[in-house]
UniProtKB/TrEMBL annotation:
The keyword Transport applies. One of its GO terms (cellular component) is outer membrane-bounded periplasmic space. This is Protein TonB. Belongs to the TonB family. Residues 49-152 are annotated as: Disordered. The keyword Nucleotidyltransferase does not apply.
Amino acid sequence: MAYADQEMSGNRIVAIIIVALIHIGLGYALITGLALDVAKSVVERVTTIDVEEPPPPEPEDEPPPPPEDIPETAPPPPVAPPPPINIAPAPPPIRTQTTIPPPAPPAVVIPPPAPPAPPAPPPVNKARGASPKGQRSWASRIQRNYPRRAERDGIEGNVGVSVTVGTDGRVAGCTVTSSSGSSDLDTAACDGMTRYARFDPALNTAGNPITDTYRTTIVYRLN
């Protein structure tokens, strides 16, 4: 054990001496301008005392030189600068209406005026005058009722009369308009018209019966 300690102490002394020499060498190298190379070599020697450095990497294969017969490429043609771009101004913002307007009132459709009603047809005029009804019959009865005195005296004549015909078609009044010259014949004519004569009464425009006047002549003749 004592021998071993002595050997280790001797190694330490040797190491101290070596380190001192290294420092002296470094100082000298710094003075002479070779400090960097010396420091590198010393550091490499000191660091590689106990550590094995890995082998340096193999150099990569250099690319083959380009063939000499390939012609050089022509320079690219000049590129014209792009035309300026006109940027249109931004459109105005769209304003949205938030309030909904009330609906428009419905359109008032005025119908065309109705065509005027056609005029009412004029009322049918139903007016007529009084007309004899069965004149042949009652005229012969009046003539047969010959006044006896005028028949005995052989008196003949024509008597013109005007009678008023009522709404019932009967004679309401009689007047001699043309005398025969015999009062007996004139009186017999009005009496016969009042007793035997019949008429269709006269009508107004509405068709209602009205009174009317009728004129005729009574002829008295002896057989």
